[in-house]
TrEMBL record:
Its main location: other. This is (S)-2-hydroxy-acid oxidase. Belongs to the FMN-dependent alpha-hydroxy acid dehydrogenase family. Its EC number is 1.1.3.15. InterPro entries: Aldolase_TIM, Alpha-hydoxy_acid_DH_FMN, FMN-dep_DH, FMN_HAD, FMN_hydac_DH_AS. It is found in: Peroxisome. Its cofactor is FMN. PROSITE patterns: FMN_HYDROXY_ACID_DH_1 (PS00557), FMN_HYDROXY_ACID_DH_2 (PS51349). Gene3D superfamilies: Aldolase class I.
Length: 364
C-alpha cells in the first residue's frame, strides 16, 4: 500500500495521478505564461524568519475569529469551482470536512452542488462567493437563497470582468459540468468550437460593467456582510474601505486571471498598510505550508484561504483528504509558531519575518 502523503505537495501528486488530465489541468493551471502561478508559491521562499527563543510555548493556541465567528485555526476554505470534477460527492464532501475541522468554507458561485444541498449537509459557518451576472436577477436570487439557508457572508469576486486566458483549458477543450444552482434560472449550456467551453460560458454570463457603485446594489439585496476578493493595490484597498465592505481578501484569483500581477504575498503588506486596521484583511494564494500561513499572518493577514490544496485532497481522498490537508497545514503552523516563539496567533508579529524589502533597506 502506498504511504500516506505527508505534505500538500504529495497530495497534489496523488490528485494528478487520480484525475483525468483535462480536470487536473483545469484545477492546477493559471493564466497565459503561468508566471504569477509559479510566483504565488515561490515568493514565500524569499521571506525568512526572525525567531525568538526561550519563550514558553508549552501550549499553542491557533484559534482566531473572522467577522466574529470563532474558527479553530486561521485556515479557511477558498471558493473554487466545480468540486464534482474532483470527487463525486463534490462540495458536500468539502463542506463536511470544513465542519469537522471547525473552519469556514466559502462556497463557489460555480459549484456543482446547490446552495441548499450544501446547507443541509452539515452545521457550519459558510460564506457564498458571488459573481455578478449580466442578468442581475440571477445573482440576486442566489444571494437571497444563500441568506435564507443560513450562509453568513457574501464574498464578491471583483477581479473577473472577463475570464483570464487559461491555455490548458483552451487546448483541452475544457467542458463545464452541470451547474445545479442555476437550473431553471438561466441556461449554462454553451456550444463553442473555439476551445474552452468555460471561457465561452463566462463571457456570455459575467457582467463586465460591474463597478464600485454596484456595491450599493449588492447592499440593497442582502443584509449579510460583504467581503471583496481580488484586491492587490493600496488604491483599491482604500476604495473598498470607503464603500464600506466588511473585509478585504488579497487575491489574484490563484493566478488564473491576469498573468504578471505580483504574487499575493508580495502585495499583502501594501494592502494591510492602506487599510490601517479599519477592516480585516484576509489572504488567498500560494499557501502550501504552515510556514506560508505564518508569513501571511506576520505581514498582517487575519487568516488565510486555501484553494488548490483543498481540491488536491478532495481528488485524492474525498472528505478525508480535505480534512487531512487542513490538519497537515495546522500541524505545520503549530510547529512554526512554537519554533518562532509564538504561543498564540496574536503573538505573530511583523518582527517575526524578514522580506526582501527589509533586507534591501538594511543595506542602505
Amino acid at each position: 500500500m502506498a504511504a500516506e502523503p505527508v505534505n500538500v505537495n504529495e497530495f497534489q501528486e496523488l490528485a494528478r495521478q487520480s484525475l483525468p488530465k483535462m480536470y487536473y489541468d483545469f484545477f492546477s493551471g493559471g493564466a497565459e505564461d503561468q508566471h504569477t502561478l509559479r510566483e504565488n508559491v515561490e515568493a514565500f521562499s524569499r521571506i525568512t524568519f526572525h525567531p525568538r527563543i526561550l519563550v514558553d510555548v508549552s501550549k499553542i493556541d491557533m484559534s482566531t475569529t473572522v467577522l466574529g465567528f470563532n474558527i479553530s485555526s486561521p485556515i479557511m476554505i477558498a471558493p473554487t469551482a466545480m468540486h464534482k470534477l474532483a470527487h463525486p460527492e463534490g462540495e458536500i464532501a468539502t463542506a463536511r470536512a470544513a465542519a469537522a475541522c471547525n473552519t469556514i468554507m466559502v462556497l463557489s458561485f460555480m459549484s456543482t452542488c446547490t446552495v441548499e444541498e450544501v446547507a443541509s449537509s452539515c452545521n457550519a459557518v459558510r460564506f457564498l462567493q458571488l459573481y455578478v451576472f449580466k442578468r442581475r436577477d440571477v445573482s440576486a436570487q442566489l444571494v437571497q437563497r444563500a441568506e435564507r439557508n443560513g450562509f453568513k457572508a457574501i464574498v464578491l469576486t471583483a477581479d473577473t470582468p472577463r475570464l483570464g486566458r487559461r491555455e490548458a483549458d483552451i487546448k483541452n477543450r475544457m467542458v463545464s459540468p452541470r451547474l445545479k444552482n442555476f437550473e431553471g434560472l438561466i441556461s449554462t449550456e454553451v456550444v463553442t468550437d473555439k476551445g474552452s467551453n468555460i471561457e465561452a460560458l463566462a463571457s456570455g454570463m459575467f457582467d463586465a460593467s460591474l463597478s464600485w457603485k454596484d456595491i450599493e446594489w449588492l447592499r440593497s439585496i442582502t443584509n449579510l456582510p460583504i467581503l471583496i476578493k481580488g484586491v492587490l493595490t493600496c488604491e483599491d484597498a482604500i476604495k473598498a474601505v470607503e464603500v464600506g465592505v466588511s473585509g478585504i481578501i488579497v487575491s489574484n484569483h490563484g493566478a488564473r486571471q491576469l498573468d504578471y500581477v505580483p504574487a499575493t504575498i508580495s502585495a499583502l503588506e501594501e494592502v494591510v498598510l492602506a487599510v490601517g486596521g479599519k477592516v480585516p484583511v484576509l489572504f488567498d494564494g500560494g499557501i502550501r505550508r504552515g510556514t506560508d500561513i505564518f508569513k501571511a499572518l506576520a505581514l498582517g493577514a487575519q487568516a488565510v484561504f486555501i484553494g488548490r490544496p483543498v481540491i488536491y485532497g478532495l481528488a485524492a481522498k474525498g472528505k478525508h483528504g480535505v480534512r487531512r490537508v487542513i490538519e497537515m497545514l495546522k500541524d505545520e503552523l503549530e510547529i512554526t509558531m512554537a519554533l518562532s516563539g509564538c504561543s498564540s496567533v496574536k503573538d505573530i508579529s511583523r518582527r517575526h519575518v524578514r522580506t526582501e524589502r527589509d533586507r534591501l533597506q538594511s543595506m542602505l
